[in-house]
């Protein structure tokens, strides 16, 4: 009986294995049911929900400014842009125009957050593939950004740094000088990391031609952010639907050509340089004046609905808000970039090796707090 069982197992060509949710390379609590033939992936089924906290339902119980701390805890590596999307939706429904100084402050903090988020991506992505050194360099630079966040609002990770109508605080004395000093030295660091990785034979073998998705398929799946731009689609919310003062600054939207893991790596590396470029312009143009518009003490948007999105580090982060005229949202639904991008994972890994699965998960740069909400 035992021999028959062993023979049947040995003759089996297909096998289904559970990858995660405890595996460190699944970046949180993602579970993947992977069907394999030897080392070759036949299909993948993402299973989510292990981190579900009912965020969208909690929104309905909070005042509008009280919702902001909940957004911090979705993509917890990009709290600033989470805040930016929510307050932007409420302001659009209420017809509020924030002061110019507040708009530029939002852009500075948002681009610093993009840098911090991409640094976490590069550190963990490289570590997953087997490159340990970039991890330490990236977190060293990220810590400098978190120092700036802490000096501004007292928090490093869950910032809660915006309010409906503007910003809760003005900058502390010397903050702009410290920010300028950081961005002046940062591009040289990016070049150092590229010297470690871009032409590295092992890095290229693990990324070139891995997780390929065409431009047409990327659009069909609804990808946004670096995964979409890596496939050659020049789509960036900051350009196509400018918010705050993004239409007043100059920056380029980098794109790839092959739609593989390597192209998505190159896109994010160039995005960090473009973020520095935006921050530099914002610091030069930062006007004096108030940081908060005249808004009621109790925020009550008129009855209606609105959709507002920002270009978060992972892609388009949108908020669909329905108001019944009260001081809490009737409905507040989030369009999370990570959730949408993850659904294309099976398309990207079919036919790849099991080892390539880790590389593709890293190149999507998912955060499960945003996926599960």
Q: What is this structure, in a nutshell?
A:
With 373 residues, this protein is mainly alpha-helical. It has helices at residues 2-11, 55-59, 68-72, 79-94, 100-129, 133-153, 175-197, 201-207, 215-221, 226-229, 237-240, 261-285, 337-342, 345-349, 354-364, 368-372; strands at 15-19, 31-37, 40-47, 304-312, 315-323, 331-335.
Provide structural commentary.
The protein is mainly α and 373 residues long. The chain has a single domain (52-158, 175-300, 307-331, 339-372), classed as Cytochrome-c3 Hydrogenase, chain B (Orthogonal Bundle), CATH 1.10.645. Helix content is 49%, strand content 12%. The protein has 16 helices and 6 strands. The strands form 2 sheets. It has a 3-stranded antiparallel sheet with strand order 1-2-3. Strand 4 (304-312) and strand 5 (315-323) form a beta hairpin. Helix 5 packs antiparallel against helix 12. The longest helix is centred in the N-terminal third of the chain and has 30 residues, at 100-129. The radius of gyration is 22 Å and the shape is globular. The termini are far apart. The model is unreliable at 5-10 (pLDDT under 50).
Furnish the topology, listing elements before pairings:
Blueprint: H1 2-11, E1 15-19, E2 31-37, E3 40-47, H2 55-59, H3 68-72, H4 79-94, H5 100-129, H6 133-153, H7 175-197, H8 201-207, H9 215-221, H10 226-229, H11 237-240, H12 261-285, E4 304-312, E5 315-323, E6 331-335, H13 337-342, H14 345-349, H15 354-364, H16 368-372
Antiparallel strand pairs: 1-2, 2-3, 4-5, 5-6
Helix pairs in contact: 4-5, 5-6, 5-12, 5-15, 6-7, 7-12
């Amino acid at each position: 009986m035992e021999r028959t069982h062993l023979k049947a197992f040995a003759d089996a060509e297909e096998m289904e294995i559970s990858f995660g949710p405890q595996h460190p390379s699944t970046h949180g609590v993602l579970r993947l049911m992977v069907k394999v033939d030897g080392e070759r992936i036949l299909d993948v089924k993402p299973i989510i929900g292990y981190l579900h906290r009912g965020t969208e339902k909690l929104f309905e119980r909070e005042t509008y400014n009280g919702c902001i701390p909940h957004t911090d805890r979705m993509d917890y590596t990009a709290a600033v842009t989470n805040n930016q999307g929510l307050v932007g939706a409420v302001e659009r429904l209420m017809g509020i125009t924030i002061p110019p100084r507040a708009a530029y402050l939002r852009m500075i903090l948002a681009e610093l957050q993009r840098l911090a988020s991409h640094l976490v991506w590069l550190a963990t992505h490289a570590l997953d593939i087997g490159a340990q050194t970039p991890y330490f360099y990236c977190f060293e630079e990220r810590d400098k950004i978190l120092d700036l966040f802490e000096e501004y609002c007292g928090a490093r990770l869950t910032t809660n740094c915006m309010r409906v109508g503007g910003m809760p605080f003005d900058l502390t004395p010397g903050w702009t000088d410290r920010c300028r000093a950081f961005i002046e030295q940062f591009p040289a660091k990016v070049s150092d990391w590229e010297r470690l990785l871009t032409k590295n034979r092992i890095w290229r073998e693990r990324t070139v031609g891995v997780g390929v998705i065409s431009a047409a398929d990327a659009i069909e799946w609804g990808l946004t952010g670096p995964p979409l731009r890596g496939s050659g689609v020049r789509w960036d919310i900051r350009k196509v639907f400018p918010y705050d003062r993004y239409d007043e600054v100059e920056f380029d939207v980098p794109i790839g050509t092959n739609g593989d893991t390597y192209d998505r790596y190159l896109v994010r590396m160039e995005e960090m340089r473009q973020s520095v470029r935006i921050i530099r312009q914002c610091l030069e143009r930062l006007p004096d004046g108030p940081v908060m518009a005249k808004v009621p003490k109790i925020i009550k948007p008129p009855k209606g609905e609105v959709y507002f999105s920002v270009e978060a580090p992972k892609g388009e982060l949108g908020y669909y808000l329905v108001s019944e005229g009260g001081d809490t949202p009737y409905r507040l639904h989030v369009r999370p970039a990570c959730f949408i991008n993850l659904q294309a994972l099976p398309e990207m890994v079919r036919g790849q090796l099991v080892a390539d699965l880790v590389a593709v998960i890293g190149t999507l740069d998912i955060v499960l707090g945003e996926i599960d909400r």
